[in-house]
Amino acid sequence: MSESAYKFTAFNGGPRLCLGKDFAYYQMKFAAASILYRYRVRVVEGHPVTPKLALTMYMRYGLKVNLFRRDEAERRKCLLKYYG
């Protein structure tokens, strides 16, 4: 069974499907991959991680994180781990 075209209301579905939907997904994946490659991401200690159920799911209290820059050696190690 394929995913519903109406999963994210911002993109609509049917004959009025957003033309930029695929580009938006690629851009989002590239941005997330770039951040994860360059930084270690850690949730702020003591911050509650609670999802809020709504039309689109988001975090009830936001998601506070700390970013720690990866040095070149750590980035290489990360690439080798996944691409051998």
From TrEMBL:
Give the record's keywords alphabetically. Heme, Iron, Metal-binding, Monooxygenase, Oxidoreductase
> What's the superkingdom here?
Eukaryota
Recorded GO MF terms: heme binding; iron ion binding; monooxygenase activity; oxidoreductase activity, acting on paired donors, with incorporation or reduction of molecular oxygen
Q: Which SUPFAM superfamilies match?
A: Cytochrome P450
Q: Which cofactor does it need?
A: heme
Question: What are the GO BP annotations of this UniProt entry?
Answer: lipid metabolic process
Which is one Pfam family of this protein?
A: p450
- Into which family does the record put it? Belongs to the cytochrome P450 family.
UniProt name for this protein: Cytochrome P450
Species per Swiss-Prot/TrEMBL record: Corymbia citriodora subsp. variegata
